[in-house]
Amino acid sequence: MSAVDYFKQAPPISRTIAASAFTLSILVYTGFIPFYYVAFIPEKFIQLPPQIWRLLTSFLMTSPKFGIIFDTYFLYTYGSKLETASPKFSQPGDFFTYILFVCATIVGLNMALTGAYLFTSALVLAFAYTSSQDDRGMKTTFYIMQIPAPWMPFAMLLVIFIMESPQQALIAATGIIAAHLHDFLTRLWPEFGGGRNLLPTPAFIKRLFQTRTTTTTRKAYGTSVAPPEQSGSSNSVLPESWRARGSGHRLGGN
C-alpha cells in the first residue's frame, strides 16, 4: 500500500488535522509563512476584514524541532482512535462537535488565564484525556513504565512542565479541563446526575457528516443498484402503519 492509499484510508478528520499541523509547522519554521500570521491575536478578529483563520492555525502550530513529529503523531493517534473507536462518538458529526466545543473552551480559558497565542499542546492533551477515559482499567506504556491509562494525559503534562515551562504546562492543562468539561456535560451528568446530554450534536452537523452509500451489483443481465439505507428503516414489505398490528390470525379460525 502506498503512502497516498494509506492517507486516503485514514479517518478523515484526524488525517486532515495531522497533515495540516505538519504542513503548517514546516512552512512556518522554514520561514515561508511568517509566524505572526498564524498566532491567535484577539485584536485581529475585530478589524475589517477579520482574520478568522487564526482560530484554526493557532491549533495547528506544533512545537519546534522534534515537536513537529511528536505533536503530529499524537494528534493523529489519539484523534483517529476517538474518531473511529470511541463509544462517545458513535453518531455522524459527534467527533466534529466535540472538537468545536473543546477548541472554543480552550480559547476561552487561555484568554482568561494565560494570554497564550498557540493551543496545539492543549488540543493534544484534550484528545489524550478523552481517549484515556475509554481505557479505564487498562495499562499503557509511558516511556519504559506501565501506568494506568487514565494517567497518561497527566504524565504528558508533567513532561511539558519539566521539559518546557510551567507556563506551557498551564496552557496544555486547559485542554484537559476542556475535555473533562465535555465528558461531564455529555456523559457524567446524564449517567450519574439524572440529567440529559447538554451538548447534543446539532442536526445540521449530523446531516453534513451523514454518509449515504449506494450498493451496485453487476449481473449478467445488467446492473442492480440498491438505494442508500435509511436509519430506522425496516426490510418489511408491509406499510409502516401495519407493522404494529400483531401477528395476525386466519379468518374463521379458532
Please describe what this structure looks like:
The protein is mainly α. The chain has a single domain (13-208), classed as Rhomboid-like (Rhomboid-like fold). The protein contains nine helices and four strands; from the N terminus they run ααααααββαααββ. It has a two-stranded antiparallel sheet with strand order 1-2. Helix 2 (12-29) packs antiparallel against helix 4, helix 4 runs parallel beside helix 6 and helix 6 (120-133) runs antiparallel to helix 7 (152-163). The model is unreliable at 213-217 and 229-250 (pLDDT under 50).
Short key terms for the protein model shown above:
Rhomboid-like fold, 4 strands, single chain, 7% strand, 254 residues, mainly alpha, two-stranded antiparallel sheet, globular
How large, in whole angstroms, is the Cα Rg? 24 Å
Report the top-level CATH class. Answer: Mainly Alpha
Compute the number of strand runs. 4
Class derived from helix and strand content: mainly alpha
Spatial sequence of strands, sheet with the most strands: 1-2
Organism: Lachnellula suecica
Function: May be involved in the degradation of misfolded endoplasmic reticulum (ER) luminal proteins.
Membrane topology: Multi-pass membrane protein
GO cellular component, one term: endoplasmic reticulum membrane
